[in-house]
Amino acid sequence: MNWPLAKHVGLQFLRGFSRGQLDGSFGLYALGATWHFQSTLHDPAVVPVRHAVPFLMDALVGGFDPASGYSVELDNCIVEGDEAAIEYRATGNARTGQIHANRYLVRFTVTGGTIVSIRPYFAAISLVGFCQILTS
Predict the structure, then answer these.
(1) Strand 29-36 versus strand 46-48 pairing type
(2) What stretch of H or E contains 30?
(3) For residue 33, which phi and psi values (nearest 5 degrees)?
(4) In whole numbers, what is the pLDDT of the chain averaged over residues?
(5) Which one of 62, 95, 119, 121 is most buried, by most CB atoms within 10 A?
């Protein structure tokens, strides 16, 4: 595995996801790829990425102002073999007018140039605050 490829594929996925570009994200993961919702959540789950991405697009990305969207900026990336751990910042304006800014860490497993596993890590309390911003 060429380590820059794992980083490149992960970043490309995050950028397409943040722009609401589902078509760009679909080609980056394998048909059987899994999204691992973290065990600190009330109902942790492992679901196919093809189901998680549209759900998260509607639930999270859809909460941002479509005119300005939100941006993803790389803070750090550590790559070992087929694994890329990407720490990034996401900032944007919610439809409610409030500003959202948070830091995230996501681990991608990339095989043959496509994502086979996505494991995001974040403070669950941050998600609660984010949901309040989107709905207030």
Answers:
(1) antiparallel
(2) strand 29-36
(3) -60, 145
(4) 77
(5) 119
Distance from C-alpha of 21 to C-alpha of 27, rounded to nearest angstrom: 11
Place 3 in a pLDDT band, splitting at 50, 70 and 90: low
End-to-end CA distance of the chain: 45
What are the C-alpha distances in Å from 121 to residues 21, 39, 55?
Answer: 22, 10, 18
Read off φ and ψ for residue 100, nearest 5 degrees: -115, 130
Integer Cα distance of 90 and 100 in angstroms? 8
Query: Can you give the three-state secondary structure of 59-113, one letter per residue?
Result: HCHHHECCCCCEEEEEEEEEEECCEEEEEEEEEEEECCCCEEEEEEEEEEEEECC
The more confidently predicted of residues 21 and 113 is 113
Decide the pairing of beta strands 99-111 and 83-93: antiparallel
